[in-house]
Each structure stands twice: as structure tokens, then as C-alpha cells.
Design brief:
Blueprint (H helix, E strand, L loop, with lengths): L4 H35 L4 H29 L2 H18 L6 H33 L1 H30 L2 H6 L2 H17 L20 H16 L3 H11 L7 H26 L2 H10 L2 H7 L3 H15 L2 H9 L5 H27 L3 H27 L3
Length: about 375
């Protein structure tokens, strides 16, 4: 029996609450991990390597997780396992007194996210099929970023009161546990979300379509050209342009822009298609010059947040529009692996360039992002004429 649109929206909102709590947990931690790595003696290259390696391992694991999800259809159980790992890894950062230990926990947190993301995105795609995929994924990302704003604010408040990194990480156990509880409630209330899918695309389910692979290459260019916030935080600390306690606030601001951008571009995706992503790239490509080469850091973070909002919402929604439901878990796994590899190589490159030349870092960031635009235009034409 096909479930009603209202139930689908409730399902999307429940998943959004789970992600809100999860983001409050790990984004709160990430707002300080770059700074804390520097305090514990890590260099800019190490910060870039750790950030990139965590993403690469996490995204690479999604290839296996996506395949297993499709084979077993155990989307709920695998999603729960991933969130449970996050629940454990982040609070343990309070016990890290060496950068190697902190780096290991950062990678563990990324691993938990890798395990939960492909099956979670499949579940979300089912509910979003009834409310509009752009809107559904955009709403989910907006709620996601409410947590991403709240987490750094909590961390900033605790750090301001205690001046202790350990207390700032330990307080994040609360949203982690709440999120896991809501996830279990959602699983009990909607045990078969596949019933939300009412219209199945007429695609060959034996292989992924060519446009999917072109799209993966395009988004890989975008990911390689983006700078993760730990390196931005490291830069701001080294330049002493902001006090340590202000950096989480800046991150919270970027996440707030991310939330608004996700809703806006999600709406645009449902109305103008992939042009919404092209527009987001054109806006966000200028973040690196503003963050690294000027005093207009706030405006740089506005553009950075726009790009992140698009990459975390409509980028995933477009995948669901390109592949059939039976291959969606594998598609998300493959997509995440390719994107993660590009993010890792890009993060490593940005870390190395940071230690040598800010100008070259900015140039690499801008050029790599612009390389994705012709491919996105190609996909736009292909989706219009899908022969």
C-alpha cells in the first residue's frame, strides 16, 4: 500500500532530526579539531592529510556499504550501526592528548558516517520521491545544518566557560545519544520506507547509466577544489586574525548559510533541474580568494556555505534522479567513493600548497571547481535528450 504524502514528509522530517543531532555532534567537534591538532603539534600538511584521509577512508568504505545495502536490503540496520559509531567516537575526543589519537578518532567518526550514509540516502530518496527530491533532500540538509550551527555554538560556549578542549568535546555526547534514540523510533514507525516510492524510472537496472559516470566526474572536480574547514580554521589561527573561541562561531555562521542554501537550491532543483547546481558553483567558486587572500573572511564563508549547502543536498538528490531504485545503494556507494577520493586528493593538495603558497592554493581551488561546469552542462543536455 502506498503511504500518503503527509507520512512521507513526516518520515523525511524524522530523518532530518536524526541528522540534526548527528551534525550537532560531529560538526561541533570539527569546529575545533583543526585548531586542536595545531595545539597538539600538527603542521598544516598534517591537518590537510588527516582531514583528507578521514574523508577518503570514509567515502571509500561507502562503496562496500552501498553494495551490501543493495544486496541485503538491510538499510535500517546498517544506518543504525553507522550512527552508533559516531555516538562513541566524538565524545572520546575529550580523552585525546596527542594529535595521533585525535586524528584516529577523527577518522573513526568519518568511518561511522561512511557506514550510515549510503543506506540513509536510499531511505531518504524513498520519502523524498513523494515530496519532491530537491525539496526533500534540501529540507533534510537544512535540518542537518541546524545541528551544524548548534554544535559549534555549544562548543564555543563550553570553551568560553572552561577554556578546555576536553569539556568542549565531552558535552557532544548528549546530542549523539538523542539522535540515536530518534533513529530507533523512526525505524519502528516506518519499517518499510520503500513503499513511499510510487513512480519507478524506466532504466536498465543491470548497469548504471552513462550520465551517472559523467556526473561523478563533474562532482569530483568540485570536491577536489573545495577546502575543508579544518584547514581554514588552521589558517585563521596561524594568522591570529580570530581568537580561538571565535572560530567555532565562524563555522556556525557558515553552516547557517549552508542550511539556507540547501533549501533554496533544493527548491530550484525541482523547478530548473541541474541548472541549480551550476548556479551554486558559479556563486561558491570565489570563496578561496576571500578566505585566504583578503580580510573579507565573512563573505568568503558565505560563498563557502553556499557551495557546501549545494554539495550536501542537491548533489545527492540528482543521483537519485539518475539511477533506478534497485541500484541506488550501490550508486550512492560508488558516487561517495569517487567523490571522497577527489576530496582526499584535493585536501592533501591544499594542505601542501598552504605550506608553500596561498596564491597557488587559491588558484588550484578555483580552477578545479570551474572544470566541473562543462561536465554539468553536458549532463543538463543529456537529461533533456536522454537517448
Amino acid at each position: 500500500m502506498v503511504l500518503q504524502k503527509g507520512s512521507a514528509l513526516s518520515f523525511v522530517i524524522l530523518l532530518g532530526v536524526v541528522s540534526l543531532c548527528a551534525d550537532a555532534t560531529y560538526e561541533g567537534a570539527r569546529s575545533l579539531t583543526g585548531v586542536y591538532l595545531g595545539v597538539l603539534g600538527a603542521s598544516g600538511t598534517v591537518v590537510g592529510l588527516v582531514a583528507g584521509l578521514g574523508e577518503f577512508i570514509g567515502y571509500g568504505l561507502r562503496l562496500v556499504v552501498g553494495y551490501v545495502s543493495d544486496r541485503t536490503r538491510a538499510y535500517w540496520r546498517i544506518t543504525t550501526l553507522g550512527y552508533a559509531i559516531n555516538t562513541i567516537a566524538v565524545p572520546l575526543m575529550a580523552l585525546a592528548h596527542r594529535w595521533e589519537v585525535l586524528a584516529s578518532l577523527m577518522i573513526a567518526e568519518r568511518t561511522g558516517k561512511a557506514i550510515r550514509t549510503p543506506p540513509r540516502d536510499v531511505l531518504l530518496s524513498y520519502g523524498a520521491s513523494q515530496v519532491g527530491r530537491g525539496f526533500g533532500f534540501g529540507l533534510h540538509e537544512a535540518m542537518d545544518q541546524i545541528g551544524a550551527v548548534a554544535g559549534p555554538l555549544i562548543v564555543a560556549g563550553v570553551f568560553a566557560l572552561t577554556q578546555h578542549y576536553q569539556s568542549s568535546f565531552a558535552v557532544l555526547a548528549l546530542p549523539a545519544v538523542i539522535g540515536l534514540i530518534v533513529l530507533l523510533i523512526a525505524q519502528q514507525r516506518y519499517p518499510e520506507p520503500r513503499e513511499f516510492e510510487t513512480v519507478l524510472p524506466d532504466l536498465n537496472t543491470k548497469r548504471l547509466p552513462r550520465l551517472f559516470w559523467i556526473y561523478l566526474l563533474a562532482v569530483a572536480c568540485l570536491g577536489a577544489g573545495y577546502v575543508d574547514f579544518p584547514l581554514i580554521a588552521f589558517h585563521l589561527q596561524q594568522g591570529e586574525s580570530l581568537q580561538t573561541g571565535q572560530i567555532p562561531l565562524l563555522y556556525a555562521f557558515g553552516m547557517g548559510v549552508d542550511a539556507v542554501a540547501a533549501l533554496l537550491f533544493g527548491y530550484l532543483l525541482d523547478h530548473i533541474g541541474i541548472m541549480a547546481l551550476i548556479l551554486a558553483v558559479l556563486l561558491s567558486v570565489g570563496f578561496a580568494p576571500l578566505v585566504f587572500l583578503s580580510s573579507a573572511v565573512i563573505w568568503g564563508m558565505v560563498l563557502w556555505g553556499i557551495g557546501m549547502g549545494a554539495q550536501e543536498s542537491i548533489v545527492r538528490a540528482i543521483v537519485a534522479n539518475l539511477v533506478p531504485p534497485e541500484r541506488r545503494g550501490s550508486a550512492y556507494g560508488i558516487f561517495s567513493t569517487g567523490y571522497g577520493l577527489a576530496w582526499f586528493l584535493g585536501s592533501l593538495l591544499m594542505g601542501v600548497l598552504y605550506d608553500h603558497s596561498l596564491g597557488l592554493l587559491v588558484l588550484a581551488s578555483v580552477v578545479l571547481q570551474l572544470l566541473g561546469l562543462p561536465l554539468l552542462w553536458w549532463i543538463k543536455q543529456g537529461m533533456r535528450h536522454p537517448a
